[in-house]
Amino acid sequence: MRILIGAKPQKWDPRFAVDAFGMKFSDLIFQSLVTLDHKLQVAPSLAYKWEQNQKNLKFWIKSHTQFSDELKLSCEDLIFSIEAYQKKEVPFKLAFKNIQNPKCTIDPKTTDLILSFSLLKSPIKFLRADLPVLKVLPKAVFNTSEKLLPTQLIGTGPYILDSLTDSKILLKAKDPQLHIPYLDFLVAKDPFTKYLKIHKQKIDLAIDELPPIKILSLKRNAQFDIIETEGLSTNYLLLNLRDPELKKFHVRQKLHNAIPREKITRLSLEGLAHPAFSLLNPSNPYYVNLDPTSIPHSTEGKPDHIMPSFEIKTSQNSQVIQNMKILIQELKPKGFEFTLKSYDWGTFFKDIKKGNFQIASMRWVGVFDPDIHGIAFHSKEFPPGRNRGHYANKNVDILLEKAEETLDPNERIALYQEVQKQIFADYPIIPLWRNTLVAVKHKRIEQFILDPQGSFRPLLKTKIKR
Questions:
Q1: Burial of 432 by CB count in 10 Å (0-12 exposed, 13-18 middle, 19+ buried)?
Q2: Helix (H, G, I), strand (E, B), or coil: what is residue 9?
Q3: Looking at the domain assignment, is residue 27 inside a domain?
Q4: Between the N and C ends of the chain, which has fewer C-beta atoms within 10 Å?
């Protein structure tokens, strides 16, 4: 099966993979104790069953489980995997510092492995939002703080890396009886090249890869199906709050209120996006309406203050560049001047992580749990964490910590809604729009279900018509 992707993973080692493709490939080569199905509900993965009692969790794993090098999974590997994700150099460490007293025993009747641990904080979101990120690793291979190369990766997942070039990633099924024995990922960065590969039927599947204008064109091609679903990704402007101008509240507020989101989504995105004023989707139970038309805005500061010129950094994604050009054009009559600079993804992302930017066009992918606000805005998440704009608000930190600890679902909703109100009243980032998630699928591909995260997990149940 031939799958189009716009870039290779930045990091293959699952302990350090925070980019979208790095995490998507991790789902194929490795396994977590649990995963998410296409409805974003917790589903079995390595663990075939689990129990939860307040803050105590227990998981059962089959004794015959093997890594791709045919070594059997051991209790030592399970404990090591937890400890590996708690190390200070790992970007997910704060989520897994939550785990206390991990223990592993052997079931005397079945010889299955039983892993148990307790949580310091509420388990409400842990199974859905955190645990699927933690991949089970062989201690013999990963017992190093160094980032492993793609060819060194050994996991219990259904696929192994067969070959890797600049333009192609080939995964081979561990079990030859799997529906699709090979997954052939073809890398193409240019939208026109992507479109041609699909149009010439050199691609079977592309998930969230084409600009809206090309999607509209392919709707007329009888060889392909276009699948759409409500997306969980939010595009936004990341602001560097250490910048002397962007640290000023009135500058951020004016920029936020000046952006004509509806017009830009209509002009540039062909209606395949909706204006966003927060990170969560309106269908999310934690969502709070922050649309400025429904909230009276403060006039604090100097609304008519002449704005300095700002630099916006983007990747070389042509759709992103087009979106930013239209945004710049629309904001110019409102007193804003920008220079736009685009870089290859590797250079761009390194600059973001180093804080080498004023404003950057970014996207949070797969946002479904309000814990995203802790990851993105808690002051403990300053780089190498993911609070890359260096936003700090002590009251928000306190609310986030309470929300993480509560066992009451209703209280959690109320706390996270207050968190959103306080954060977005400060304008540390500027939400822009949520894209409709679109997959282009050749008709020979059957039983493919597009999940809202745009992950590769549905490939495990997909079939090819012979």
A1: buried
A2: coil
A3: no
A4: C
Give me the helix-helix angle, 394-405 and 409-426, nearest 10°: 160
Same domain flag for 313 and 382: yes
Residues 6+ apart with CB under 8 A from 171: 25, 28, 29, 159, 160, 161, 162, 182, 183, 185
- Whether residue 74 lies inside any domain: the answer is yes
- Same domain for 419 and 451, yes or no, is no
Distance CA 24, CA 159 (A): 12
- By C-alpha distance, which of 99, 103, 100 is closest to 75? 103
Tens digits of pLDDT across the chain (466 residues): 999 999 999 999 999 998 889 999 999 999 999 998 888 889 999 999 999 998 999 999 999 999 999 999 999 999 999 999 999 999 999 889 999 999 999 999 999 999 999 999 888 889 988 999 999 999 999 998 788 889 899 999 999 999 999 999 999 999 888 889 999 999 998 889 999 999 999 999 999 999 898 998 999 899 999 999 888 889 999 999 999 999 999 999 999 999 999 999 988 888 889 999 999 988 888 999 998 765 544 444 444 556 789 999 999 988 899 999 999 999 999 999 999 999 998 899 999 999 999 999 999 887 888 989 999 999 999 998 899 999 999 999 999 999 988 888 899 999 999 999 999 999 999 999 998 999 999 999 999 999 888 999 999 999 998 7
| Number of domains present in the structure of the chain | 3
Give the pairing type, strands 437-442 and 224-229: antiparallel
- Structural tokens at position 128: 């859905």
Residue 44: cis peptide before it, omega within 30 degrees of 0: no
Residue 434, classed as helix, strand or coil, is strand
Instruction: Give the integer Cα–Cα distance in Å for 113 and 99.
Output: 18
C-alpha 438/C-alpha 440 separation (Å) is 7
- My answer on whether 215 and 68 are in the same domain is no
Question: 189: which residues sit within 8 A by CB, 6+ positions away?
Answer: 6, 7, 316, 317
The conformational region for residue 270 under phi > 0 = left, psi -120 to 50 = alpha, else beta, is left
Strands 234-239 vs 309-315: parallel, antiparallel or unpaired: unpaired
Query: Which residues constitute the domain of residue 89?
Result: 32-140
Q: Cα 279 to chain center, whole Å?
A: 12
Domain-embedded: residue 382: yes
DSSP strands (E only) in 76-223: 99-106, 113-119, 159-164, 168-173, 182-187, 205-207
In a domain, 12, yes or no: no
